[in-house]
């Protein structure tokens, strides 16, 4: 349907609502006796089906390198998430005791990779095994197709099984001393891939943003020599400091990342990091002729596409797009978002396996759109989840390509605007 037809349908729906829509008589809500002779108004409801003129789903959020709190998952084919931590600069020398000159590192002992976990999110009643692999390669190692084959037995450099009681806030995973020393001796970089396994489902939430996983080892039998600690560092891509720094730690999704949804479905969250974009075209005659009391976005949820984490709750944020209408690329515009708490828009907590009508209150945002005008506002929103990329749970809704009865629509509760003045 064309934009003109959408606009006409919206106006017609409102006019019909003014004549025959549901109403509630309200007294004394529009002014004071000294200024207005008519202090009564009818609250009316109308549902506009033609005001969502564009909706689509984007994947790939958060961007590679933006996520440092990474949840390792082992749910078989349903979900398999691993991580890579880079140590591109390893020390080659150390200072022994009170010596004034440093010495070359000639041994490595008690090597471990140490990291912290969220003990609440990582609780398990079964033993959990963590494997460490040497995943360094000359190929492009940010691609899952390159990295996943490197998680193999001949590249194993450490493994430890933890009993449930041992899953405390800080874990130390022993590494092969000889292989770590070989990296130092030959001036090579070390890139460690971590994988968790056990009796599915296994979940281990690594808190990389507050405590970066670190490499620790001893270089001398002399106990006066402190163990060496190496923090994550990435030196590639060369010359791109901002990008390389963000790639010190990043996830690798080996299974469970869903493809883009069909045209009749909007997706939010999941391991694919899906976000839904919706653009509204609310004719000015509607917003200028009524006082909007409520504005509810009505979405019809449909059961999730996969069976992974369908019973888990997923939080839904609704965030306004702040990009100017002159930005025509939808993906670019959808990266400029206002805070989910800044406009008084609803936050929902939903379950992926559920279905049925869901309502998101947008009245404050609609009022902002009216005051800003179409020249200064794109009148668009993005639906996203703060758990995107962390859990296989994905929310699904019918899009504007679905049957009319389940398409996104806007329900308005309003009163006609009245003039003020001495009668």
Briefly say what this structure is.
By secondary structure, the chain is mainly beta.
Structure description:
The chain has 423 residues and is mainly beta. The protein folds into 2 domains: 3-59 and 260-416, no CATH class; 69-255. The protein contains 7 helices and 25 strands. The protein has helices spanning 3-20, 144-147, 177-185, 241-246, 284-289, 330-333, 363-372; strands at residues 23-27, 40-48, 52-58, 69-74, 80-87, 93-95, 102-104, 109-116, 128-134, 156-162, 170-174, 190-198, 202-207, 214-218, 228-230, 249-255, 265-269, 275-280, 290-302, 314-320, 348-350, 356-361, 380-384, 394-398, 409-416. A hairpin with a 5-residue loop joins β4 (69-74) and β5. The longest helix is centred in the first third of the chain and has 18 residues, at 3-20. The protein starts with a helix and ends in a 7-residue tail after the last strand. The relative contact order is 0.20.
Distance between the termini: 45 Å
Q: State which percent range the strand residues make up.
A: 35-45%
How many domains? The number is 2
The residue-averaged pLDDT reads 87
Which descriptor suits the 3D outline? elongated
Q: What low-confidence regions span 5 or more consecutive residues with pLDDT below 50?
A: 13-21, 23-38
**Structure class:** mainly beta
Rounded to the nearest angstrom, the radius of gyration is 28 Å
- Largest β-sheet summary: 7 strands, antiparallel
The helix count comes to: 7
Helix content: 10-25%
The total strand number stands at 25
């Amino acid at each position: 349907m064309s934009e003109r037809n959408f606009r006409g349908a919206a106006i017609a729906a409102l006019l019909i609502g003014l004549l025959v829509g549901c109403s509630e008589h309200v007294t004394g809500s529009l002014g004071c006796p000294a200024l207005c002779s008519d202090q009564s108004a009818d609250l009316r409801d109308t549902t506009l089906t033609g005001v969502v003129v564009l909706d689509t789903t984007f994947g790939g959020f958060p961007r590679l390198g933006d996520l440092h709190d990474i949840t390792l998952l082992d749910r078989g084919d349903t979900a398999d998430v691993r991580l890579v931590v880079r140590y591109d600069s390893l020390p080659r020398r150390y200072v022994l005791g009170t010596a004034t000159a440093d010495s070359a590192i000639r041994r490595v002992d008690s090597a471990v990779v140490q990291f912290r976990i969220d003990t609440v999110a990582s609780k398990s009643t079964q033993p959990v095994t963590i494997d460490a692999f040497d995943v360094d390669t000359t190929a492009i190692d940010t691609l899952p197709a390159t990295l996943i084959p490197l998680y193999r037995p001949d590249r194993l450099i450490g493994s430890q099984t933890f009993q449930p009681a041992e899953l405390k806030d800080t874990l130390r995973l022993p590494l092969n001393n000889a292989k770590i020393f070989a990296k130092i001796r030959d001036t090579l970089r070390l890139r460690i891939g971590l994988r968790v396994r056990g009796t599915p489902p296994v979940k281990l939430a690594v808190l990389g943003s507050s405590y970066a996983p670190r490499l620790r080892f001893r270089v001398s039998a002399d106990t006066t020599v402190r163990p060496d600690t190496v923090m994550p560092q990435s030196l590639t891509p060369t010359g791109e400091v901002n990008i390389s720094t963000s790639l010190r730690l990043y996830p690798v999704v080996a299974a469970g990342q869903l493809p883009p949804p069909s045209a009749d479905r909007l997706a939010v969250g999941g391991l694919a990091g899906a976000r839904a974009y919706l653009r509204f075209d609310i004719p000015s005659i509607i917003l200028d002729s009524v006082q909007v009391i409520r504005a509810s976005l009505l979405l019809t949820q449909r059961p999730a596409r996969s069976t992974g984490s369908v019973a888990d709750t997923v939080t839904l944020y609704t965030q306004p797009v702040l990009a100017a209408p002159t930005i025509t690329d939808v993906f670019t515009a959808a990266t400029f978002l206002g805070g989910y708490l800044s406009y008084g828009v609803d936050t929902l907590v939903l379950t992926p396996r559920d279905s049925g009508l869901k309502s998101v209150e947008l009245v404050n945002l609609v009022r902002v759109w009216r005051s800003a005008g179409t020249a200064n506002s794109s009148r668009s929103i993005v639906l996203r989840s703060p758990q995107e990329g962390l859990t296989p749970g994905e929310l699904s809704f019918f899009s504007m390509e679905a049957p009319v009865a389940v398409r996104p629509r806007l329900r308005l509760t309003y009163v006609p605007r009245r003039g003020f003045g001495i009668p």
